[in-house]
Amino acid sequence: MQNGAAITRAYHDEDDHGWQFCSEHITHPKDAMLVSLQEIVNIDQSVTEIADLPPGWMAQRERIGSAWHRILQYADATQVIIDWSLITSEEAFYDSVLSQCGSPTWHGRNLDALADSWITGGIDSGGPQYAFGFFASESTLPDLIAFRDSVLKIAEESIDENGGRYIQQSEQSGGGNGLKPVPHL
Known about the structure:
By secondary structure, this protein is of the alpha/beta class. The protein has helices spanning 37-43, 90-101, 111-120, 145-162, and strands at residues 9-12, 19-22, 57-60, 69-72, 78-83, 130-135, 164-166. It folds into 2 domains: 2-72, no CATH class; 78-171, 2-Layer Sandwich (Barnase, Chain D). The chain has 4 helices and 7 strands, in the order E-E-H-E-E-E-H-H-E-H-E. The chain is elongated, with a radius of gyration of 18 Å. Residues 163-185 are annotated as: Disordered.
């Protein structure tokens, strides 16, 4: 909110119930600043109009004084759930992921092809945007750790470029198996 830029977007995070306030000038996470909620209210009291915004929702407007429009974030994002304790090979990973993404049968089974699908888009029927759930990271087989880390970087870039989010264990259908999500990179 430097240089008097108007707050035009607000996000109420699902995972930690934190808030993010953005202007049209903030287009990349590296440009973000950590400030208190009171500082935001001091800059623009109209953000109190969305104080009841539920976690997992965003609000946006054209400019200060415009009406806020409330939107459920990523409600239609394709879910990609990976339990690393069940992945025994790169092939097993691709078997699971490509079917979840709605990938065509000709889809490549390598990290470059995965990046094309998750970041560039236009290949899978389901995305991007994706809601990623990576669980049981500590159970990744030793020979798959570097591969897992590359997958996590591609997912992070997909979210940065296209939106999307990480799924918490409580959101996973049939949850309750004790798996814990991999934290953001």
